[in-house]
Amino acid sequence: MIIGAGTAGLTAGIYASRLKLSTLILEDEIVGGQINDAYEVENYPGFMKVKGSDLTDIMKEQAIYAGAEIDEFDSIKKVDLADEFKIIETDSYRYKAKSVIVAAGAKKRPLPIPEEKKYLSKGIHYCELCDGHMYEGKHIVVVGGGNSAIGAALVLLKYASKLTIIHQFDSFNADKKTVDKLLANDKVEVIWNTEVRHGFGDKNLEKIEIENLLTKDKSMIDVDAMFVYIGHTPRTDMYKEFLEIDNYGNLIANEDCETKIKGVYAAGDVRAKKFRQLTTATSDGTIAALMVEEYIKNLN
Ligand SMILES: Cc1cc2nc3c(=O)[nH]c(=O)nc-3n(C[C@H](O)[C@H](O)[C@H](O)COP(=O)(O)OP(=O)(O)OC[C@H]3O[C@@H](n4cnc5c(N)ncnc54)[C@H](O)[C@@H]3O)c2cc1C
After folding, report:
1. CATH code for position 131
2. Ligand 1, from 29, 30, 35: best to mutate by most atoms within 8 Å of Cβ?
3. Category of 202 on φ-ψ map: left (φ > 0), alpha (ψ -120 to 50) or beta
4. Which atom of ligand 1 is nearest to the CA of 280?
5. What's the domain count of the chain?
6. Closest CA relative to residue 287, chosen from 274, 268, 270
7. Least CB-packed of 13, 14, 113, 248 within 10 Å?
8. Residues 239 and 104 in one domain
9. Residues 67 and 208 grouped into a single domain
């Protein structure tokens, strides 16, 4: 069983199925994981330039073609990884597996302001591809300065009359070519060394209060929407009882993706490691599936 149908999980699914292992991939959201949100991917070998969602479609098709089953939109309620057979209970089924690959990736971190919930989907958004079109001709703010924020800003420029990026540092931590493309557009303004403190508005977000981290000066700006990209947190709470987890919530596993429990592997962004990319996720997915095959062969 593979938990998570992102890049790591789908890769593991392709390899495990081709090794003739009976393979089920569990996904509680839409198949594809984080890369679904990528405007364009230009560093995945074999593709000069590809939309993240197109890449996902191909990976999904390839996993199914190889023989993997995918159970989509089914939430996991409980896992028990302690015994030889691993138990996974979802909303709909109770599964029993010889081996489990946790490829649960990471989830977007919510903006830490008191009004986040009040304006969620009413001016505060996390998915430019899903919600950007609602703000045609409007002032859009993007919060963040990594690849996700910059990629999203490029998408949102299609709609925005003005686009302001608010970043807590004084430089971006993103692909330089993409940053240059963005900054060349005169609709774009960047507010450096700044964080968002509050949101205001009747029903929808209308204004935000920002604070300059160097001067501590606070000011208000009028906005129509704020799209937030301030990192991800791993979704590992349900494994805490069984697996080792680092200070950031990542699962601890070795280079062969082995966790401290035999037959349980961690693959992709969920694994404690330095670099998190598509290529490292596919690498982990491959290794984890090959390790499962070896593990199950030795059980028999
Ligand atoms: C906007 C954006 C752009 C990016 N651009 C690039 C790029 O150009 N090049 C590059 O190399 N990398 C890029 N990345 C990083 C890359 O997308 C990730 O490193 C990679 O997708 C990680 O894959 P993963 O499978 O480990 O995790 P994820 O993609 O996070 O997938 C994990 C999946 O597991 C599911 N899941 C989690 N918990 C459960 C559960 N309990 N039950 C069922 N399912 C569960 C999630 O819903 C998700 O679908 C980008 C990331 C973002 C956000």
Report:
1. 3.50.50.60
2. 35
3. alpha
4. 19
5. 2
6. 268
7. 248
8. yes
9. no
CA angle 84, 87, 91 (to 5 degrees): 175
Closest CA to 286 of 29, 97, 17: 17
Domain end among 228, 247, 271: 228
266 — pLDDT class (breaks 50, 70, 90):
very high
Nearest CA to ligand 1 atom 5: 38
215 and 287 within one domain: no
In the reported structure, the alpha carbon of residue 107 is separated from the centroid of ligand 1 by a whole-number distance in angstroms of: 8
Within-domain flag for 118: no
Residue 275 clears pLDDT 90, i.e. is over it: no
Distance CA 188, CA 183 (A): 6
CA–centroid distance, residue 153 to ligand 1 (Å): 19
Spatial CA neighbour of 38 closest among 281, 290, 239: 281
Point out the residues that are catalytic.
127, 130-131
pTM of this prediction?
Answer: 0.78
Using 50, 70 and 90 to split pLDDT, how confident is the model at 139?
A: very high
Question: What is the position in ligand 1's atom list of the atom closest to the CA of 279?
Answer: 11
CA of 178 to the centre of ligand 1 (A): 20
The model's confidence at residue 41, banded by pLDDT at 50, 70 and 90, is confident
Domain range enclosing 214: 124-228
119 inside domain:
no
Measure 137 CA to ligand 1 centroid, in angstroms: 31
pLDDT digits 0-9 by tens, 69-123: 999 988 999 999 999 999 999 988 999 999 999 999 988 889 999 999 999 889 9
Residue 115 lies in a domain: no
